[in-house]
Design brief:
Elements: E1 4-8, H1 20-35, E2 39-45, H2 54-64, E3 78-79, E4 82-83, E5 86-87, E6 89-92, H3 99-106, E7 122-127, E8 131-137, E9 144-151, E10 161-167
Parallel strand pairs: 1-10
Antiparallel strand pairs: 2-6, 2-7, 3-4, 5-9, 7-10, 8-9
Length: 168
């Protein structure tokens, strides 16, 4: 399967005058153009928080279908003794689709308190039909959360990955 990789620039994504609606419109336009009306799960990550270069991280995602490159993960969550493979936002590819993810990083606690702020610069788009949605107890907000997913075919995660959007 050929994964779509799209590199973009988004001048509105700056922390001097951050307007998440404008950033979301920039991202949504590209994603909707590629995946219009498909049921997807989008996962945004901050490459600066990883121990490997952005290029190597992208290559890992292309090769494996996931940004999980370390076997041990201190933030790992298990539900019924099964590890959640990824956290993402399930939706139909139409506006707005990235705003809630951006808000999770830049508007809501605890992520918005991090300094310096970092861009959510790698976005993975998964086929929602290839993932199982997992409900779990959110340890920070103490509510039931439904943003956890496992791969239906863990031996072939790459078939779930539809595309990658990279903000340069």
């Amino acid at each position: 399967m050929n994964t779509i990789i799209e590199h973009i620039s988004c001048s509105d994504y700056n922390f001097n005058n951050l307007d998440l609606d404008k950033v979301s419109q920039c991202l949504d336009g590209i994603l909707i153009d590629k995946f219009a009306n498909k049921k997807v799960v989008i996962r945004g990550i901050q490459s600066e928080k990883h121990d490997i270069s952005k290029e190597k991280l992208i290559q890992t995602i292309v090769d494996t279908g996931s940004d999980r490159y370390a076997l041990e993960n201190k933030n790992e969550i298990k539900v019924n003794d099964r590890t959640i493979d990824l956290f993402g936002y399930g939706c139909v590819a139409k506006r707005p689709m990235t705003l809630s993810v951006l808000e999770g990083f830049h508007k809501w606690k605890p992520m918005c308190l991090e300094r310096p702020q970092k861009k959510v610069d790698i976005w993975m788009i998964y086929d929602a039909n290839q993932l199982n949605n997992i409900e779990y107890n959110h340890s920070y907000y103490h509510v039931k959360a439904n943003d956890g997913y496992t791969f239906k075919d863990p031996a072939n995660k790459l078939k779930s990955l539809l595309g990658i959007l990279v903000i340069d």
